[in-house]
Amino acid sequence: xxxxxxxxxxxxxxxxxxxxxxxxxxxxxxxxxxxxxxxxxxxxxxxxxxxxxxxxxxxxxxxxxxxxxxxxxxxxxxxxxxxxxxxxxxxxxxxxxxxxxxxxxxxxxxxxxxxxxxxxxxxxxxxxxxxxxxxxxxxxxxxxxxxxxxxxxxxxxxxxxxxxxxxxxxxxxxxxxxxxxxxxxxxxxxxxxxxxxxxxxxxxxxxxxxxxxxxxxxxxxxxxxxxxxxxxxxxxxxxxxxxxxxxxxxxxxxxxxxxxxxxxxxxxxxxxxxxxxxxxxxxxxxxxxxxxxxxxxxxxxx
Amino acid sequence: xxxxxxxxxxxxxxxxxxxxxxxxxxxxxxxxxxxxxxxxxxxxxxxxxxxxxxxxxxxxxxxxxxxxxxxxxxxxxxxxxxxxxxxxxxxxxxxxxxxxxxxxxxxxxxxxxxxxxxxxxxxxxxxxxxxxxxxxxxxxxxxxxxxxxxxxxxxxxxxxxxxxxxxxxxxxxxxxxxxxxxxxxxxxxxxxxxxxxxxxxxxxxxxxxxxxxxxxxxxxxxxxxxxxxxxxxxxxxxxxxxxxxxxxxxxxxxxxxxxxxxxxxxxxxxxxxxxxxxxxxxxxxxxxxxxxxxxxx
Lengths: 302, 297
Fold this sequence. Notes:
The complex is a heterodimer of chains A (302) and B (297).
Chain A: H1 2-6, H2 12-23, H3 39-67, H4 73-79, H5 82-115, H6 121-127, H7 130-133, H8 136-147, H9 155-160, H10 169-195, H11 198-205, H12 210-239, H13 242-248, H14 258-267, H15 271-301
Helix pairs in contact in A: 3-15, 4-15, 5-10, 5-12, 8-10, 8-13, 10-12, 10-13, 11-12, 12-15, 14-15
Chain B: H1 3-6, H2 11-18, H3 41-71, H4 73-81, H5 84-117, H6 123-135, H7 138-149, H8 163-173, H9 175-188, H10 191-199, H11 204-232, H12 252-261, H13 265-296
Helix pairs in contact in B: 3-13, 4-13, 5-8, 5-9, 5-11, 7-8, 9-11, 10-11, 11-13, 12-13
């Protein structure tokens, strides 16, 4: 951000001058700021709409359609099945805990990366993006290799102390936190850069301590970024599948999350149940995006 | 912001706030708070706790993958990843991810262009559609694609259990990456320069090739790197869609999982290391590209 401020783009002014002088002799229509639409514009627009319709819109709406094919039977089947509700409850609890952890650490890491200088900062800033690029299966494997009760690095010690991680809820939470880790940081860090430090320093000179400065100056400025981060993390946490599959053991009624249930039901020829569960999960994640899409423009007005 | 009025900053003070690593000079005049970048006690504890947490959750586990893979020695590692079935899986995964990413470069840029430069009713819907693959649970994504391109397809197109299904799943889950990296850069572009070029007689194609394309290339590359990384590491959306047939539609992640389920941890770790190296290369590439983006402003 600092670099941007220093290297201001200088070439707008000279171009502005040239345009008025050179535009006149040519007979081509003047290009004004209002949109000039050629055939290309419509072709491109049509392509994008058709592409997204076939890739996203139609398939997603089919899941809704299949869910309600026999009326509300499929949905009722899920809602009245105690094992299914147990899965949903587990998913919600895990996601809630993961989101809280990721929010606290996400804001802390963002503050450290943007506001402070320390050795290894650049490395940390690159590494926090790593979970976005690592396969969920590799995430699960990595956690099993360290925390697995049989042959893991720390697992046997933890287990003899009575703390089971893998094939239990703590493992599911860790896997979920891992995969959703960068989302809050990616939302909050750019905003922190943008708001600068003027107000924070002013608060400090007026005698505010670090805690007061954070809650009364910094946090109000980044709160929308935090909200987006939380909503995106929530969507990601509710929907994690691969990493959870590896670490959970998929025990019915104990460690089977909602996404694992979709696979289970589909493979056991309970397609109605699979579609209904998938529909519920899709509903939540689409709601999350729509919420973000609705709040986001408001921030620009402020 | 009003608080700063009560005690006006000297003009120089503001400049220093913009450039982060200021050293000496004006700094001495006022006692700077921690905003200057030095770690106070609280921040130092915060950094310590954060690093321990990050190590326990991310660094040590990932190191364990490499460690377990290396424990068997180079020969064992090489033997594992050149195993015929494993190699077929790696080739399929990387090949499909490359192909899909190339396609995404064109479609992603086109979508970003339409989102930024075109105006029509319902554009907001497109904006939401782009994010759906990112937010949708991957297993649900697989089911979603299966409902239109599977055995019960209303279109009569059934790609389930074929390599086309792998490509389709990659295409779905990687959709947002290039769009979302190119879109903000395109929105920030200075339209005056394009108008100037056009008024100087440049055709639309020339304007795009000579003015717009150079400005958005780093963003396209960063998005392409993300899209490739996501494709290579994909698992969930393929479970129901691709059938995981060895030598045909089995991807690397599935191969790792089956090694693990057969209690072959060293084998799983070896293949996982290959994926990790790919992820690391991508992360470094993105880091470099983002620096380039920032320099360009």
